[in-house]
Amino acid sequence: MGIGRAKEGFSVFGILNKCVTPMGRRLLRAWFLRPIIDIDVINNRLNTISFFLCCEEVMSALRETLKSVRDVPHMLKKFNSPSSSCTSSDWHTFLKCICSLLHINKIFEVGISEHLANKLQHMSIDLVEKANSSITAELDYVSNLVIGVIDVQRSKEKGYETLVKENLCDELDELRMVYEGLPDFLEQVSANENASFPFSLECRKAPLIVYVHQIGYLMCFFDEKISEALLIGLQDFEFAFSEDGEERRFYYHTQKTRELDNLLGDIYHKILDMERAIIRDLVCRVLQFLPQLTKAVNFAAELDCILSLAIVARQNNYVRPILTEDSILEIRNGRHALQEMTVDTFVPNDTKIRSAGRINIITGPNYSGKSIYIKQVALVVFLAHIGSFVPADSAVVGLTDRIFCAMGSKSMTTEQSTFMIDLHQVGTMLRYHICIHP
């Protein structure tokens, strides 16, 4: 079915995967890899799908909300990693995710009418109760905790990477005020320095004192390097490095730049270090609620899977199968989930397997659809055991623990006849057969 590939292509999983969250896609893949025979769990999934098919507005609102839900535990792991930096975009995504999780409860509160609530109770669906127990008030506290520290718009407004809100730390606010006023301050210092030169400089552009992150303060000359003759009169000048670009720049350490290094230091990284310390403390406080966040995200993933199966059931005209513990398989007008999408007309077929006649022999000319028919029966049984609706007009499916497929390939190195290989495959099926029906 294409499971395990980077791109699913045309597969049953690809058709049923309408999930809008990464966690939902992973969970649906797990459902495909591990079908279940717990009839209560299967019926609970089928009941929930039936309920959502009766209230498409609620289903659409939930899917739109789930689009903003991300893998919160993975995000917190990234936030807590010393090798990764958290950007304003990361925190914005985190806050949007928490708000979307909280909005799920509001959709259930507002969108489910009294009639739908009675339907939930009649079908024994604990969807709303499960949502309330999974998405708790702790998430609202986490949201307020982050909002109280992080200002996701600050970076855009200030033009540099800064996240922590104002008035949270006086020392940090003072450093940021100095840093934001640094261009005007350095321009004034540059003018004073240029006026104090012992000779006039014939430059197209006046020298400037600039601040370079992690290096410090430097006097920048444009176009040409100071000649050795002029440097004799500037004994405190020390060449640092040059930079090529649209215009050449030459950087020097001077007495004034050294004073600024001692006075202000690497102010930008002082701000970053202080903000990182505050954010690390915030992450530690948020991590205390990791179990509650994980529970909420897991519920969102399960909800995403159910909604995906409901969407496919509505789009492809699937019906709810009836699961039973009896040894029976009855399918009326069954269809192949993939084949019907590749042809203009698909002829459905019935299947009846009961205790009295448990072996069906399929005959027909070449290219008549025998293999397609066998596969469609297996797919109907498989889909029923992951809790999905099935492509048929009706289906009664007895609990099935295994589906065997006899492959027709033969290896040239195997010293067995084709008949012996077939017997070996049938023998394997019989050895693994377990009667799960009374």
Automatic annotation (TrEMBL):
DNA mismatch repair protein MutS core domain sequence ranges: 7-342
One example GO MF annotation: mismatched DNA binding
The entry's keywords: ATP-binding, DNA-binding, Nucleotide-binding
GO cellular component: nucleus
Listed InterPro entries: DNA_mismatch_repair_MutS_C, DNA_mismatch_repair_MutS_core, DNA_mismatch_repair_MutS_sf, MutS, P-loop_NTPase
Domain DNA mismatch repair proteins mutS family: 357-438
BP GO terms, sorted: chiasma assembly; mismatch repair
Family designation: Belongs to the DNA mismatch repair MutS family.
Record protein name field: DNA mismatch repair proteins mutS family domain-containing protein
